[in-house]
């Protein structure tokens, strides 16, 4: 019987996927995602596009919070920086999209030093407040820099090209987002099983012991913030592409809470968890609104104007439920289900 | 009482000594916590290459603080070396970051193991070798498995689920991954069964044979002196006795205060121990 426990060689330990059969499943999933816009309805593709973009940002947040243990409530700030950089470079300066996304990530990563440096001395609640303050400062700066960002009115993303070809349809953006997500997953998985990933997890588990083992906390914490902010900046760039019009209302505290909810629901420190969390948190508000409007239509109808309030309530309930009943998130639940079926009929369900 | 400290010529017997190296030297170190709590007062000692030196003393004597000062991790605990110096192989290490101290060959196994409890045994070990190249790390990993033959079968277990003895082996193995020349152990026998303690101390003695120095902090004075070449006794932040392990074992004061023996080398009764503790407090 196949087991997950015994790995005899160093190569087995460091392999990206534990079994060759896993590759088959992931390639099949990728093929399905590639085929989706061609065969499925447009609204489904648009919805999956939202998930793809959210997953990139969630993986980014999971690196700094889940793997390195540095709580961040300021990722809406990085998202905003990425989105505005993309809007300015593509629309005002006619940059090609691929270098624009890289620059958006790099600008976000550079700005992460502002919160990364205080993080060297702060932990827990204090760090969360610092990152939150960063996010507020970023939105304020965007409002003040009206000549560049459009201020409180916002900025339209009108001209986008990839290698000289204009990007107009949602389907084109969908494929770009899919490519970015695949690269992000490979990059994150490789990083987390490398020396750097182990150092982040050591810092998360016990930072003084990590220091005793020769880990330079300054370097590794700053690098965690930079990588996380880079990915979140790229996610911000992708979101700017499909919303076509950005303003600061899209980067409020609720966005940071949404990102934290994604990694808590999905599972801290796990790439798969971040993706599962992004799926659940992205679809949940719409599913709940649909359920309420169809099943309890006679009692009340929830107008779209209340969507922010509904989201807030749903995220709060989800976070509380998961912290109480499954603190390790959906990734842990997935592992339990998988173990049950791989050992079936000999195994038994374990929570 | 404080004299010249251990020298490679008179101690250690069979231990090989690297003549070119100076080992660890702590000179007139004074350490404060929070700028006003004096934890260590003007202590000086040395750990020559290839020797096992132990620091003995009761709780609060300043032993662990001294180890933290050497390994460069006092700062997060608001501690500071306010005067004196710490040098290793002639190079000052009291003003450098902890990771540089590790790269210089000095590594600490902390009290209570402090493993990364969500990582597997092997991942813990690999973290220990983070200052080394990938090839060195893999070679050192095999050496650690040879040193602790019990570990390979647990290599993929989450370290938080291991027994105390196994965790101590992982903690020592993790420190050895950086290929140190001075290993510092803070209370390695803490909370372990006597049989496990014996095996841990056997491993410590074996380490010395590879030209590695060991600085051992231990409350179990009898155990520590049984493996050490030289010992220092700390009391209230100061070194109050020093000498070769044999001399300390024979010293009536050490026997009375730290080994719990009376003049005829019999174990003292609880009443005697209480009486001696009162006397010790009065003397100090």
Automatic annotation (TrEMBL), chain A:
Keyword Membrane on entry: yes
Pfam family, one: BPD_transp_2
Bilayer topology: Multi-pass membrane protein
GO molecular function, one term: branched-chain amino acid transmembrane transporter activity
Subcellular location per the Swiss-Prot or TrEMBL entry: Cell membrane
InterPro entries, A to Z: ABC_transp_permease (IPR001851), LivM-like (IPR043428)
Lineage top rank: taxon: Bacteria
Keyword set, alphabetical order: Cell membrane, Membrane, Transmembrane, Transmembrane helix
GO cellular component, one term: plasma membrane
Positions of transmembrane segments: 16-36, 42-63, 70-91, 97-117, 124-143, 173-192, 222-245, 251-284
Keyword set includes Transmembrane: yes
PANTHER family for the chain: HIGH-AFFINITY BRANCHED-CHAIN AMINO ACID TRANSPORT PROTEIN BRAE, HIGH-AFFINITY BRANCHED-CHAIN AMINO ACID TRANSPORT SYSTEM PERMEASE
The protein, known as: Branched-chain amino acid ABC transporter permease
Species this protein is from: Propylenella binzhouense
TrEMBL record, chain B:
Hydrolase found in the keyword field: no
Molecular function in Gene Ontology: ATP binding; ATP hydrolysis activity; branched-chain amino acid transmembrane transporter activity
ABC transporter domain boundaries: 24-261
SUPFAM superfamilies: P-loop containing nucleoside triphosphate hydrolases
Biological process, per Gene Ontology: L-amino acid transport
Keywords: Amino-acid transport, ATP-binding, Nucleotide-binding, Transport
Pfam families for the chain: ABC_tran
UniProt superkingdom: Bacteria
Family: Belongs to the ABC transporter superfamily.
PANTHER family assigned: ABC TRANSPORTER SUBSTRATE-BINDING PROTEIN, HIGH-AFFINITY BRANCHED-CHAIN AMINO ACID TRANSPORT ATP-BINDING PROTEIN LIVF
Protein name as it appears in the record: ABC transporter ATP-binding protein
Lineage: Bacteria, Pseudomonadati, Pseudomonadota, Alphaproteobacteria, Hyphomicrobiales
